Design the sequence.
């Protein structure tokens, strides 16, 4: 990915990036050191590559299909999140919203589907009790997907 760094005297703390004509422009404060610049350019490139890797997935359609197939409620909102570093997904039952770690887009589809089913089950049962796992276990690859995610180094149990 081609990168152009734009130093700004008006920018004090924040770093921002956007893509223009195949070039990632990274705006940084003018006072930032070369080491900080290198760190933030690398971080912004990683974020844009993650986002690009999830563009091919119609997340809303996939979630709707899984909710229908496993007789689980539909969320009000579902979105990718670049912020989730220690979780694969999260659910806020009161708002009926689901967030999925954007890095999941690089995992096999059956792993993504497991995490979606897991989060959909939280719309019914907030805790990880027996009722919750009975809902999640409707997905036939639950055990396999949990093993895959555990091997990736993050807990698949939530």
Sequence:
């Amino acid at each position: 990915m081609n990168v152009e760094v734009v130093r700004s005297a008006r920018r004090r703390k924040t770093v921002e990036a956007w893509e223009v004509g195949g070039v990632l422009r990274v705006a940084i404060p003018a006072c930032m050191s070369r080491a900080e610049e290198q760190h933030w350019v690398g971080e912004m490139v990683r974020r844009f590559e993650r986002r690009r890797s999830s563009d091919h997935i119609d997340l809303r359609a996939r979630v709707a299909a899984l909710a229908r197939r496993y007789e689980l409620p539909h969320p009000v909102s579902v979105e990718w999140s670049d912020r989730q570093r220690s979780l694969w997904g999260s659910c806020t039952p009161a708002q009926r919203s689901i967030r999925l770690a954007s890095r999941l887009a690089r995992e096999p589809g059956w792993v993504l589907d497991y995490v979606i089913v897991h989060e959909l089950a939280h719309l019914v049962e907030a805790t990880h009790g027996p009722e919750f796992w009975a809902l999640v276990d409707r997905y036939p690859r639950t055990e396999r997907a949990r093993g895959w995610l555990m091997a990736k180094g993050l807990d698949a149990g939530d």
Notes: The mean pLDDT is 89. The longest strand covers residues 2-8.
